[in-house]
């Protein structure tokens, strides 16, 4: 569900409705009882949807060779800004999928911020986060729809960066603390990618050694390929000289899961790490073969 609900919140509301029904009686009682039944249905629906989402994610991981972690907190302190600046009594990631897409290490998970009242769970706010890992830790840079950029710039303390493209400037706001860095990252190749139809309306950020995007609520695996196309496509278009500059400054990151020589099934665009072509991919993934050289394939693993 794309909202703030929980079993405890629903139960409390039902109790309140019952009290009102008892006090007012008559026709009002029937109306309140019907509203209570509808609310109970929403609570049950949320529970069923959560279980369905977890089963779907686990099945996807099994079929495509990705890892599935039901619950962790390892991403909670890694990033800044929305949704990671939300505070709660419990902050965690659920149904974490991790694997490779087009040779890029990627992940997607449900970020959960839970509030408690009087020691009991009262509400939970959820976001779907999808990210592509970078080889270096870069300074934060936000690329958000134009209409939300002003408020973000004020909160972040960064500056708006405009480029020599009216179409881009009318759609996006680029916010960073270093104007030169922003212009270096958003070069003509990056501008071209961000003007593609599949990125419209997304909120993107470079932070914590990754390119990430997020949206309220849970997203199923049916939209995963599209989300991976966006974050991995942006990651691949960060200019080499930017990556090299920060790597030489000591910001290089090591991917502990990266093989020394990637086999073809792990580096072929559109293949989700299952040792075979899955058919999951898009035009963006296929274009990588024409624009970016692939690593040499190593011998197949036993």
Describe this structure in words.
The chain is of the alpha+beta class and 302 residues long. It has a domain at 133-291. Helices cover 42% and strands 24% of the residues. The protein is built from ten helices and ten strands. It has helices at residues 7-24, 26-64, 146-156, 166-171, 179-185, 188-194, 224-236, 240-251, 264-267, 283-291; strands at 4-5, 67-72, 90-101, 104-117, 120-133, 141-145, 159-161, 172-176, 204-207, 210-216. Strands 1, 2, 3, 4, 5, 6, 7, 8, 9 and 10 form a ten-stranded antiparallel sheet that branches. The longest helix is centred in the first third of the chain and has 39 residues, at 26-64. The chain is globular. The model is unreliable at 1-11, 258-267 and 288-302 (pLDDT under 50).
